[in-house]
Amino acid sequence: MQARRDVFQAIADPTRRAIIGLLAGKTLTLNAVAENFKISQPAVSKHMRILTECGLVMIVKQGRERHCSARLQALQEVVQWAEQYRLFWNNKLDKLEDLLWKNTES
Predict the structure, then answer these.
(1) CATH architecture of 7-105
(2) What does the pLDDT look like over 39-72, one tens digit per residue?
(3) For the chain, where are the alpha helices, taking DSSP H only?
(4) DSSP string covering 43-59, please?
């Protein structure tokens, strides 16, 4: 059994980010997802496997079709990681602004 993939690995690829964006608003069959890309069905399936392994996409089999939906809560790990840098840069920019104001008042 393969270890769970990393969310960062999944979103590193532009095709996978596009798939997540496509599924963010609606559930689609696997074939409907593939129709949106100019790559082969096996390539789309490989991207979908990576997305499901990291928990960003859920696939439910209904009869002969597989319905895909995004699980955006899995992106929370990315949000938390990015937040620390947002706070860091906001702090740095606030200090720069204070310094610039201080120099213009002199």
Answers:
(1) Orthogonal Bundle (1.10)
(2) 999 999 999 999 999 999 999 999 999 999 999 9
(3) 7-11, 14-24, 30-34, 41-53, 76-105
(4) HHHHHHHHHHHTTSEEE
What's the burial of 17, exposed, middle or buried (CB within 10 Å: 0-12/13-18/19+)?
middle
Q: DSSP letter for 69, please.
A: E
- Single out the residue of 73, 74, 63, 72 nearest to residue 5, CA to CA: 74
The pLDDT tens digits of the residues spanning 11-49 come to 999 999 999 999 998 999 999 999 999 999 999 999 999
Sequence ranges of the domains in the chain: 7-105
Coil vs helix vs strand at 12:
coil
- Tokens standing for residue 38: 């100019």
Place of tokens 């969310």: 7
Residue 47: burial class (beta carbons within 10 Å; 0-12, 13-18, 19+): buried
Contact 58, 11 (CB under 8 A): no
- Verdict on whether the full-model pTM lies above 0.85: no
